[in-house]
Design brief:
Radius of gyration of chain A: 28 Å
Oligomer: homotrimer
Number of strands of chain A: 40
Number of helices of chain A: 5
Largest interface: A-B, 61 and 66 residues
Chain lengths: 350, 350, 350
């Protein structure tokens, strides 16, 4: 969608410099920008590297970093305002009530007229899909599921029955929500399935990456709080409670009943034992391992397997790298002590 | 399905106390239980915490832990009997021969009349699907596959051709069985695909979690033994042999030709090199790494990367945490030895 | 497809011994070989173990390792030539222009007549699918995607819009290509989505394993070079650049903007921080962790979390296992030093 610089600046509530009538068509990185691109220059270091030969429609920059001869919008947070401008320039297409004839919609399902339904979608009995949702090809919405307004379900998203999802939540291709949790009781010969009859509640503005899996509660609810963002191939087990605004990078796995409070930030390939408790705002580095039942305290950054506070882990890791020197120092000490003993014995015997 | 307490007790072969005619509708956890719920109290610790204000239809408890004023079924293993009761109270719906008109079934496929086939299912030529199976929306059964009785394939399960599955096996949404293994021979310039023309055999009563992947044998068979339970996002490579009653938690990966014997228990995010051999009953902690060709001995619990016996690993991990002290001790020793040397030299020169 | 030994030898450009007219039907491993099987014996160790009772149609062996009484093709690289012979004996079935009537093909899509299209496939507007491609059941090809010649997309592969794929590339079931990358800018209260409007380019002869996920570039391109092979459940984040002939084992995750040069070999469950740079030919052991921004140098093998050169890591890991002895040595030294001090004091006071 084409916009003038003055329209974008007005949308962002920011001042601009240069020709406000210049048209902007798209957001770009420097490397592929052209005369219709909006770019951003995050800070002075980036500004110093900005190639003078690049011609763009407009750059979002901090005051004092304006490149010569370029139209600019002045911002204190260029990357954030660039992201905001992108949603104006390249908005996702809204639902327009398009329903592909190949979609299978149960008679008892309650689907708003505005909803887009792609080819080969299956919507089960008593499901409710609210205004503005987009269900891409091959999506399966189980019996009794509820989707809030303006959700986007990319191809082949699977919702097991009774899953509830808030507004503006985005589920990427292959995401599975509501599968049975992994719970058995061993009877001495076989693993007897523990009931997995709970549900999943995903709140507003959540985004979940491709092929991630969210198990239903065994007896209760697996919950993902508003504004939480989850990357690809992440596993969320039964009864896990994830707060608001949490960020979880790819391939992380969270075991049953673990609690992640608001605004926690979790790297990739992290593993959580069951019944762990991560307090508000904790940061956990990639590949870390959190033991079952462990409590991670607010205000701290953690890393390692098992996790330790970051400063401690860094020190230990540095010392790990110095093990050869420590071994040599011990050997040298042994030699010195042996010769001291000999010298002392000699003195004593004199 | 509503049952009386006496019916449930009779099904479990256990005695009850209180009003046997009370109706029970569902299994619940304490938090959400109501007057129609069956709950369980696993042990005295749980019994001590049981809130007296909760009103439930019935609690399964150990003798001596009965809460006052509550109908009870007396069990030596309350959690196990609760799981058993759940299968009576909330059984999964049996197949009733329902076939959605949108399903695509090859003319040469042999599908029992009792099988439920959801919308948009595709069953390939010469496939056989036996009595009581349920194939949910979007399932793909490849050419020549065989499914035993009463299997449940959740939405979008993919079976490549020639995969064989036993009775009562459950595959969750997005599971892929029979994909090509990862094998190439480098010819000096390119990676030439090694043939991946074997099969997969999954025995009875197996359950596999959402989006897990099971590769076919390269020339032979990838095998998963009866009663084995596999969590979400697990990778099983070509020619892997998994025994009976094995438990494998989420995101674990098992490389080619590795052998896992019966009743092994494997945590989440564990990795196995190829041709490893895990003997019967071994327990492996989460995030562990097993080197290629490694043999893990029965009777042992393992942890760490690479794995070590648990007691050894715990000791090493504790010492890892004491590296700063060790470093200080070495420094202190150096100082003392230096002053000893000086004192000794002084003595010698006197 | 049945072939004579002389036909196979001629195809491979290799000499044979024995009856060149013997028919060969299939490739097999020793364990399941029969009189119509082609097998291979890689080296003298394998030859020494070859059971004399096995009857096969033909064995590919090194000169000097021929089993008595067996037809042989003589090769310097038996496993490689066996893999080549397999593509002659058991070629994948070519596309024959079969289109299932249930497939949904946009009117504006440009699909070559030779392409096989399975049941319940969805091809979006303006997509181009070139000669000889095979799209299995449930595949979704997004708007504007381009597929080169003779690609195979197994069931339920999802291509988001604008993804471009070269020739002879194989995507296994459940692979997702072009999903949004994981990028947000925190505005102090919420995570604002950074635009994910780039694309994915996958070159010729790439193979990607089941349920792996390849995110689209945020503003630029995520690229996977020709001949690269990727295993199951691998995560490739936005803007990652992977060179030619790279091998990546299962469950590895590569964070945003990381560069992997040609012919790098990566084990399973490896994790890469963002903006790492792995130079040509580097080998990285399973479960390794590469820090953000880290440069791994050509000619080196790496292992550990965080990665170190393999020889260094092995030495450190051995010393880690000797921590108890180091602790004891320090304790013994302390005792000796204490008694030395005492003895010296005694001498001094004399």
């Amino acid at each position: 969608m084409s916009r003038t610089i003055s329209e974008i600046a007005s949308y962002l509530g920011l001042p601009f410099q240069g020709d406000g009538d210049t048209k902007v068509d798209k957001v770009s990185s420097w490397e592929i920008a052209d005369a219709s691109s909006l770019i951003y220059i995050e800070n002075k270091e980036m500004a110093a590297q900005f190639p003078r030969t690049i011609r763009v429609a407009c750059a979002i920059v901090m005051a004092g970093s304006e490149p010569v001869g370029t139209n600019t919008i002045i911002s204190e947070k260029p990357k954030l305002d660039f992201a905001r401008a992108a949603s104006l320039l390249q908005p996702s297409r809204p639902a327009m009530g398009l329903r592909h004839s190949s979609a299978i919609i149960a008679a008892s399902a309650d689907v708003d007229d505005s909803v887009n339904i792609g080819p080969l979608v299956a919507i089960g009995p008593h499901a409710r899909v609210r205004r503005g949702c987009i269900l891409h090809a091959g999506v399966v919405v189980g019996e009794g599921c509820v989707l809030g307004e303006e959700c986007i379900l990319y191809p082949n998203v699977i919702l097991y029955p009774q899953v509830e999802i808030g507004n503006r939540t985005i589920l990427h291709a292959g995401v599975v929500v509501g599968s049975d949790g992994f719970g058995y009781v061993f009877d001495g010969a076989a693993h007897i399935k523990f009931p997995q009859v709970g549900t999943v509640l995903i709140e507003d503005d959540v985004e979940i990456g491709a092929n991630s899996t969210i198990d239903r509660g065994s007896l209760g609810v697996t919950r993902i709080g508003a504004g939480t963002k989850i990357d690809n191939l992440v596993q969320v087990a039964h009864n896990v409670q994830i707060g608001k605004g949490v960020v979880i990078a790819a391939q992380t796995g969270i075991s049953g009943s673990t609690i992640i409070e608001d605004y926690v930030v979790i790297g990739g390939q992290v593993g959580f034992g069951d019944h762990a408790h991560v307090q508000k705002g904790v940061v956990i580095g990639s590949k870390a391992g959190v033991l079952p039942g462990k409590i991670l305290r607010s205000g701290e950054t953690y890393w390692g397997i098992p996790v330790r506070p970051l400063s401690e882990f860094k020190r230990l890791n540095a010392l790990f790298g110095r093990l050869p020197q420590m071994k040599e120092e011990i050997s040298a000490l042994k030699e010195k002590v042996t010769s001291l003993q000999a010298a002392l014995q000699k003195l004593e015997s004199e």
